Amino acid sequence: MTAGDGGRPTLEKTIFLVSDSTGQTAKLLLSRLLVQYGDLGEPRVRLFAGVTTAAQLTDLMEQAEALSRDLLVFATLVDPKLSDLLEQLAASMDVRYINVFKPLLTSLDSWFGSSARGIPGDCFEGPVMTQSAVNTEFFRMADAVQFVQQHISGLNRQDWPKADVILVGLSRVGKEVAAGYLAQRGVRAACLSVAPGEALPPELSLLRQGKIVVLAMEADALVRRRRSRIAELERRAAPSFLESGYANPERVEFEVKFLADLVRRHPEWLGPIDCTYLAMDELCAALTRELRLNG
């Protein structure tokens, strides 16, 4: 095990990431899985995108054979012919592999009663095959995903200085979903819910200007979200720790006014960004833009 560029240990293992499209889905999926082994260090990852022919697949498998002792082929192939060829080559070359989509598509074929079309999900317009080391941006995404998982609902506040952004807002405004979306872009986000009568954590005042972003929402929309949350918990017969009146319109209106006053008292905070009519991708674009302008 050696030290990587980011100071984290690098495992003496290699993953060939094989996709018949752009490789974005494969990278995201692998990054989520590698979070589970983050304490072991970072394996070397090489991306093979746009693999759509037998010749391309055979060539990369020959490269894998030369490194097969500590190598794993992690594929997201949907073409059944390429999928079958991968199995044959892996068996003949003694290369360990995972074709993630094959068992998923087999189950879906059975459920739909129809065969998958075998068409890659994205339109690939680059070179026929791109082979390169996945740089630190890939592992930044994996690290950001893990960071978000550990810093929802105000948890682990001692780590807030390491965050790229702290999302502050009322309960159910969408902070956690936005944080997860940002993590896919390598942004380390933490979340904090605020409410009348609850003191702000002192760690918040120690953060540099431009790191705290407020998310807001109109009262009517927030009431609907909270009612949906209550209904979902009741449907699942799950225990609820929500306070009485959580979705009461008068209470929510009071909280919205409280948040507006809080923002006025903290001009160093960014926003508020009104989430009421924004789709998640639009919200995250607005967040990214805000951070870029004030970073």
From TrEMBL:
<keyword id="KW-0418">Kinase</keyword>
<keyword id="KW-0808">Transferase</keyword>
<dbReference type="Pfam" id="PF03618">
    <property type="entry name" value="Kinase-PPPase"/>
</dbReference>
<dbReference type="GO" id="GO:0005524">
    <property type="term" value="F:ATP binding"/>
</dbReference>
<protein>
    <recommendedName>
        <fullName>Pyruvate, phosphate dikinase regulatory protein</fullName>
    </recommendedName>
</protein>
<keyword id="KW-0547">Nucleotide-binding</keyword>
<keyword id="KW-0723">Serine/threonine-protein kinase</keyword>
<dbReference type="GO" id="GO:0004674">
    <property type="term" value="F:protein serine/threonine kinase activity"/>
</dbReference>
<dbReference type="InterPro" id="IPR005177">
    <property type="entry name" value="Kinase-pyrophosphorylase"/>
</dbReference>
